[in-house]
Task: inverse folding
């Protein structure tokens, strides 16, 4: 059984390896990356929460979102997940990072349509868990808080303490054959690759 889900966009990273704020990057002129990601998930979810430790930095974007504070800024995504799940109105939330320029709405919609018999629905791609492109239940809050109290701030540790439903690569390929949904902007090389890809696509396509 499914129903409405919230969306959580994690915008707490400092972009140290990239040397700039990833959320404000414009792969398409006039379209900051955070705005693009918010627009994509807002098509699918009635509520969007952006988690960051610097909401004033993004105030001029006038995004149709609610803001939540990262309780442990700069210390990894688990704190951002906790901040987001604490703020949402629905039992489940689609959670994505703000530096995913090529999100695929059809893949995200497929994920949200699956029966919610899990605490975390996480794609597998390239032999890795794609934890920043996943659906999480608010049932993850208690174990996540425990892990934070123990000093663990990674999402992989959380998967060991909740009911995980993997989304296999074949399901991803049905909507996104190249796995571009998981392409993130961590380094200058990634940025160059993303700019080359974006130059051949309108802002609304991936």
Result:
């Amino acid at each position: 059984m499914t129903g409405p889900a919230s969306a959580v966009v994690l915008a707490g990273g400092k972009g140290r390896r990239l040397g700039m704020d990833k959320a404000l990057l414009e792969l398409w002129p006039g379209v900051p990356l955070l705005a693009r990601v918010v627009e994509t998930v807002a098509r699918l979810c009635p509520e969007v929460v952006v988690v960051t430790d610097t909401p004033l930095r993004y105030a001029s974007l006038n995004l149709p979102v609610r803001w939540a504070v990262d309780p442990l800024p700069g210390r990894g995504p688990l704190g951002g997940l906790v901040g987001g799940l604490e703020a949402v109105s629905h039992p489940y939330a689609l959670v994505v990072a703000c530096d995913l320029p090529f999100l695929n709405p059809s893949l995200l919609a497929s994920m949200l349509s699956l029966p919610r018999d899990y605490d975390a629905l996480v794609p597998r791609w390239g032999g890795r868990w794609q934890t920043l492109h996943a659906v999480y239940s608010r049932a993850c809050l208690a174990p996540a808080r425990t892990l934070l109290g123990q000093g663990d701030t990674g999402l992989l540790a959380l998967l060991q303490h909740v009911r995980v439903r993997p989304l296999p690569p074949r399901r991803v390929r049905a909507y996104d054959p190249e796995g571009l949904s998981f392409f993130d902007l961590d380094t200058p090389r990634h940025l160059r690759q993303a700019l080359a890809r974006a130059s051949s696509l309108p802002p609304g396509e991936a």
Notes: The mean pLDDT is 92. The domain at 6-198 is CATH 3.90.550.10 (Spore Coat Polysaccharide Biosynthesis Protein SpsA; Chain A). The beta strands are 6-10, 48-52, 66-69, 92-97, 120-125, 128-129, 133-137, 164-167. The CA atoms of residues 68 and 120 lie 21 Å apart.
